[in-house]
Write a structure and sequence with these properties.
By secondary structure, this protein is an alpha/beta fold. It contains 3 helices and 5 strands.
């Protein structure tokens, strides 16, 4: 009798990543969305913020530089993020959305709202939404000079 015929195959066990939870229980992560006028970053961490789960940008999803900050690129990036989160067992997200801030723009770019909508439509439950744009209490002088930018 050959060696192969004598071996008994053991059934493969399903490998699961992420925390061990009961079915139907929500597992939260934190989605840090940075939407500037040049790109959109979606970075999902655990609740402490130390462990990165997935990080995708709009520039990773489109070919041309001018499309990086677009809503479409943010939508594609969010769909990738949601798929990866579901693989790892994260079912809900707290959102921290950020613009450039400081002496620059304090409203987030086109990809900010699109990425938030795409995460919700992909089946992720949304917890708290917080704007964490850095706003200075007192700051250095804004660029543009005394009379401002003249067109």
């Amino acid at each position: 009798m050959s060696k192969k015929a004598g071996k008994v195959k053991q059934p493969e066990q399903a490998i699961s990543f992420g925390p061990q939870v009961k079915p139907g229980e929500l597992v939260f992560g934190v989605a840090h969305i940075y939407a500037s006028k040049n790109d959109t970053f979606i970075h999902v961490t655990d609740l402490t913020g130390r462990e990165t789960i997935v990080r995708v940008t709009g520039g990773m999803k489109v070919k041309t530089d001018r499309d990086e900050p677009s809503a479409y690129a943010a939508l594609l990036a969010s769909q990738d993020v949601a798929a990866r989160c579901k693989e790892l067992g994260i079912t809900a997200l707290h959102i921290k959305i950020r613009a450039m801030g400081g002496t620059r723009q304090k409203t987030f770019g086109a990809g900010g709202q699109a990425s938030l909508r795409a995460l919700a439509r992909a089946g992720m439950r949304i917890g708290r939404i917080e704007d964490v744009t850095p706003i200075p209490t007192d700051t250095t002088r804004r660029r543009g000079g005394r009379r401002g930018r003249r067109l």
